[in-house]
Amino acid sequence: MPFTEEEWLPTLDELEVDEINMSSAPLKAGAHYFGKYCEKDCKEYMLCSSEEKDPRKCLKYGKRVTRCAINLYTQIRENCAEEFTKYWQCIDHADVNMNLSWCQATQAIFDQCMKEKLNFERPKLGYLSKTKVLDSSRPRPQRNLPLPDPVPELPDSADLPASETSDKRKFGRATGTFWNVLW
Amino acid sequence: MASKIRQEMPPEGGYKEVQWKRVMPKAHWSGYRTFLAFAAINGAAWFAYKWQMAYEAKRRLDENDARVALTPLLQAERDRMFLRQMRKNRDEEVAVMKDVPGWKVGTLWGEPIFHNLAERFPVVMGEEIYMHSRKADLEDRFYERRRH
């Protein structure tokens, strides 16, 4: 067990949230809208997880991401259920990689519905892959790493006595090799 | 009955001449035309290749968008699952080892498992997660024997 009893681990109640109960095809079908709709929460969570490298400290942000996702997919279900179902079923039966390029016809219908009923614009191609800067209010993690004492400074080489061998043998032969021993 | 012998004779007009001269194939295409055809086909193929590459790049970018968008959602869920399992495992270890004198949970008889002065979050081995489950479940998960 990597955690002692003194270390804090969240209790099971603290970890209990409404999980999103969907398979990969509908998740992928709504992924672009999710990335745009929950952009702030997602970025905040990913920044936390990459800075802290500690899932215990980013629980709050992770819960926000899941809540936002449930919020979005509920809206889709209430407004564009039929179009969305057709779209994700197309993706599900496209190929093993759930390639989006096979389903552009159903995707256009779904996009149309999202624009008319929810006024959600599908983000441009490559928008979500772009690197963006997040202005976060979360303080930077401070880590107090106990370091050893610094190495003391070396004495000045001019004060040291001259070496006896340095002027006698200009290029020292490597010692301890096989040929050296033979010689 | 007198047999009438019929002598086999060459055909009328004589045999055909024996072809002794080497027959060269007829050149349909001149060298210039061949090179022109080479350039045309390769040029067309180059454009087709570029078009295909552009299409593939767009497709991959779209796929990458979906992947990037979903990563936080899946990772947040995975983090919670992991912490839940760690909590369960620790509670289980406390319950199992409560009668053993000198045993400290999370250590080996009081000796810490990690040298962790900076108090980083440890990299937990997969065996730790499946510590209190059946070995078959662990192997299912590790070697992907689970039906999916």
Which helices and strands occur, and which strands form pairs?
The complex is a heterodimer of chains A (183) and B (148).
Chain A: H1 24-29, H2 31-37, H3 39-52, H4 59-79, H5 81-92, H6 104-118, H7 178-182
Helix pairs in contact in A: 3-4, 5-6
Chain B: H1 31-96, E1 107-108, E2 111-112, H2 126-129, H3 135-142
Antiparallel strand pairs in B: 1-2
Structural class of the secondary structure composition of chain A? mainly alpha
Number of helices of chain B: 3
- Assembly state (oligomeric): heterodimer
Tally of DSSP β-strands of chain B: 2
Rounded to an integer in angstroms, the radius of gyration calculated over CA atoms of chain A is 31 Å
Mean pLDDT of chain B: 91
Q: How much of the polypeptide of chain A forms β-strand, as a percent range?
A: under 5%
Largest interface: A-B, 54 and 46 residues
Mean pLDDT metric of chain A: 89
Whole-Å distance between the termini of chain A? 59 Å
Strand content of chain B: under 5%
Shape of chain B: elongated
Question: Going across the major beta sheet of chain B, what is the strand order?
Answer: 1-2
- Major sheet description of chain B: 2 strands, antiparallel
Structural class of chain B: mainly alpha
Low-confidence stretches of chain A: none
* Global Rg of chain B: 42 Å
The amount of helix of chain B comes to 40-55%
Sheet with most strands of chain A: none
The coarse silhouette of chain A is elongated
Question: What pattern of helices and strands is seen along the backbone of chain A?
Answer: HHHHHHH
